[in-house]
Amino acid sequence: MPESATVPEPAKVPPGAEEAPAPLSPWRRALRQLVHDRAALVSTALIALLVIMAVAAPLLVKLEGQDPYTYHIGLLNQANGSGPKGILGGMSGAHWFGVEPLTGRDMFALVVYGAQTSLLVGLASTAVSIIIGAVVGTAAAFFGGWLDAVIGRTADVFLAFPGMIFMIALGIVVPQAFPRWLLLVIVIGFFGWPGFARIIRGQALSLVRREFVDAARTLGAGPGHIIFRELMPNLMAPIIVFSAISIPQRIGTEAALSFLGVGVPAPTPDWGRTISDATDWVQTDLMYLLFPGGALFLAVLAFTVLGDSLRDALDPRTRR
Amino acid sequence: MLRYIARRLIGMAVVLLITGAVTYVIFYWMPSDPARLSCGKPCTPETLHQVRAYMGLNQPIWEQYWHFLEGLVGGRSFGIGQAAAQCPAPCLGYSFHQSMPVRTMIGTAFPVTVSITVGAAALWLVFGVATGMISAVKRGTWWDRGATLLSLTGVATPTYLVGLLGILLLGFQWRLVPVNGYANFTDGIGPWASHLILPWAVLAFVNAAVYARLTRSQLLEVFGEDYITTARAKGLPERIVIGKHSLRAALTPIATMFGMDIGLLLGGAIITEKVFSMQGLGYLLLQGVGQLDLPVVVGVTLFSAFFVVAANLLVDILYGYLDPRVSLA
């Protein structure tokens, strides 16, 4: 869903179109604003780079001539407890980011492959939340009555749940045979729907009383048609903005869970887990911490900045 | 007002009941059997059966949960006669792993978490709101750019990364603060604060960033309102326009977030406690999960959920005072 959101269709009824016939559709205007926003351009470029890094990880690592699983015990210094030989974590022409202490695995490969996990969980869990949140939120606004009440109370229960604690508990309870990345996507995504549902419901409430919904109803359209074909396209702006704000938080949550040891297990490369492993090495091999930490920092930063810019461009309240 | 609070209190109890039930159900399907873990060797079927009966695991899940709820109100004991393990009310469960009531364990862990939370919260509220105000008032200047950059850095850096770098610099390199651990408040305010200053600073840095961003955007939104223009047109000093008229309106969302954040942290500053090796609620929970100590996990989860739910309620009640437009009907 986030992928399709990047090429939005023009809204059927542009918000505020009745008051003043704008020469540009809101989408065009937002796009124009984004193109002139330097922060948005830089962060988009950074995100594009991250995505390329994740998708082309096997290629990049092949270019370096390494892989994330081979041990290079020979490159370790037995004298200091198997830290990397040489300076800066053993950086060299063969190992661009050096090697991992204890195992001698290639750090560049670990960081590049780690992007796969982070982006996959960050984007997919946001998609899970959007799908649930958008359907449930629009349905609550459209049908109202008892359904609205039930959805509202359920969202309250979810918001009051100590989500992080539950995720930790689930990480232990679910059998190891179940793929961890999928578990993370489901769990993080599932705990994130109430926020989406509330925002979407609020926006949808103002739409269901508009003429175009009445028109569709008069023409005999069913609830399914109205929700998916009439309301949803007009809710694209808040959906995009809220997803953009959520993605960096999700990437952070995934890394935090892995840092706590209940995320993606070894040997799958993961930034959070590598940072956790690096904890014992901060004094002897700082690079071990700085490469995955820097990658995580840049990823969260880029998505946060882009989220800000998208909100400025798409949210009519912040437009000045 | 009273009716509203009564209704919310009932809602709060329902949420806690559901939280407890869900925790129970999740752990009922746990891959390993807690009775087998504490059965000892050799574990004959008879001993296993005895242990199961002792721990109350031979009952159906809903019955176990019911006994838990009973114990919460009236206390309970495990086993019969002299050797029975006592768990006085309010009994949050009994850890067979540690041979003590979960409440006792929470009792030792909670002060650590409270110490971390209170100090950090005070710091981040003051610095976050102040930074946001400077940013908003001096919008577009270098002040604003510097503050925005700083808060973006804070938002994008995970707590544990700041914590680890802080330990490395302030603890190992400059030897200004203890590297980890916790000193009781009763051992003197000096050692207590010196152990906590780094966790406070780290949590405050990361959270203040979020508050600075929120304060800035809220204030900028309020500055566009007509009544601010009116206040300025009346010739009110800028100090009053910003400090009284604008901040008051921007305060509601800040208070909401502050309440939620404190509630969450009181339930266990999981990551901070892990990074600084402090044995608070978060540590207790992680340990309980790691040892498959079901009573600890359920007890701590419920205890944590209580703070989240209570914070929710407090914030909603405060709403009415902060924002006269909100009526608690």
TrEMBL record, chain A:
Transmembrane domains' residue ranges: 39-61, 119-143, 155-175, 181-200, 286-310
CDD domains in UniProt: TM_PBP2 (cd06261)
Region (Disordered): 1-22
InterPro entries in alphabetical order: BP-dependent_transpt_permease, MetI-like, MetI-like_sf, OppC_N
SUPFAM superfamilies, per database record: MetI-like
An individual GO BP term: transmembrane transport
Tagged with keyword ATP-binding: no
Primary location class: membrane
GO cellular component, one term: plasma membrane
Domain of life per record: Bacteria
UniProt-listed Pfam families: BPD_transp_1 (PF00528), OppC_N (PF12911)
Listed name of the protein: Peptide ABC transporter permease
Organism, scientific name: Mangrovactinospora gilvigrisea
Automatic annotation (TrEMBL), chain B:
UniProt keywords, alphabetically: Cell membrane, Membrane, Transmembrane, Transmembrane helix, Transport
This protein's record includes keyword Transmembrane: yes
Domain ABC transmembrane type-1: residue ranges: 110-319
GO biological process terms, semicolon-separated: transmembrane transport
Pfam families: BPD_transp_1, BPD_transp_1_N
Membrane topology of this protein: Multi-pass membrane protein
Keyword Nucleotidyltransferase attached: no
InterPro entries attached to this UniProt entry: BPD_transp_1_N, MetI-like, MetI-like_sf
GO cellular component: plasma membrane
Transmembrane segments: 9-30, 109-137, 149-172, 192-212, 249-272, 292-315
Subcellular location per the Swiss-Prot or TrEMBL entry: Cell membrane
UniProt family annotation: Belongs to the binding-protein-dependent transport system permease family.
Protein name stated in the entry: Peptide ABC transporter permease
Taxonomic lineage: Bacteria, Bacillati, Actinomycetota, Actinomycetes, Kitasatosporales
